[in-house]
Amino acid sequence: MPKPKDNQKLVDAHKYNLWRNKLLKSGLEIHDIDELYTRYNGHGEVLFSLLYTDATTPEGNKIPPICFLKGEVVCVLICLIDSITRQKFLILVQQRRICDGSLTYEHPAGMLDSESDAASVAAREVFEETGIAIEKKQLIQLNKDPFYPSTGTSDEAMFLFYCELELTMEQIQSYDNQTQGMLSEHEYIHTVVVPFAEGHKLITNTNGILLDFLYLKDVKDWELMQAL
After folding, report:
1. 3-state class of 155 per DSSP?
2. Which of 113, 134, 146, 188 has its CA 20 to 30 A from that of 168?
């Protein structure tokens, strides 16, 4: 696909340089990086890129060459708590994914792109994908250093957050089955509000499953954890 002149060059992208500098810091000798394909967001910034990397490890070995460059991302668990019964609900986003084409259930998530304030991005993604307006100070960050969901094929580095909101049952139900997402980014999202344990069983991505358990551990909800 030809690259429009106003799109960002890969070598100028924050996520590219973040990844490249990590390789160098780890002692790799980079001989060449071949840009196979790059997709851009609506502002012309690098969204993600498929790269072929010729690099040698400090041990003198060639490292597996393919990298799906995605950069830092956030994933946010929003727990809606019934103000009367104290029952916990998850609000999940439902959309079709390229992994198998099915409708998947996920926590709100998104990429940082060129930004460095993960909490601000997390709050924005929650609003864009669920319609729930929160401030970044309401978010609890669960990991100081990012987790890598797929170390062998991608640089994706994930920050995990959660937020508890105490609402009436009527307010909780109002967030169910809403159409959300940014069409310019090919996001066709519907929200799903379900009891926590039921929602956990719907999630099939490992970061979402991990986030559920880390949240329950942090708030010390051992009873609900036993129910999963």
Report:
1. coil
2. 188
Structure token digits, residue 162: 């959660």
Burial class of residue 161 in the structure, from the number of CB atoms within 10 Å of its CB (0-12 exposed, 13-18 middle, 19+ buried)? buried
Q: For residue range 135-162, what is the model confidence (pLDDT) as tens digits?
A: 999 999 999 999 999 999 999 999 999 9
Q: What is the mean pLDDT of residues 53-58?
A: 97
List beta partners, residue 79: 90, 164
Query: What backbone torsions phi and psi does residue 178 show, to the nearest 5 degrees?
Result: -100, 145
* Separation in Å, CA 179 to CA 123, 124, 167: 18, 16, 21
Q: What is the pLDDT of residue 181?
A: 64
> What's the pTM?
0.91
What stretch of H or E contains 15?
A: helix 14-25
Which string of b and e fits 100-138 if b means at least 16 CB within 10 Å?
eeeebbbbbbbbbbbeeebbebbbbbbebbbebebebee
> Can you tell me the distance from the alpha carbon of 19 to that of 35, in angstroms, rounded to the nearest whole number?
14
What was the pLDDT predicted at 166? 98
CA neighbor of 163 nearest in space, from 52, 88, 56: 88
**Residue 184 confidence class, pLDDT cut points 50, 70, 90:** low
Helices (H), 183-228: 196-202, 206-218, 222-227
Residue 140's contacts (CB-CB under 8 Å, 6 or more residues apart) are 161, 162, 163, 218
Q: Which tokens belong to 107?
A: 């926590």
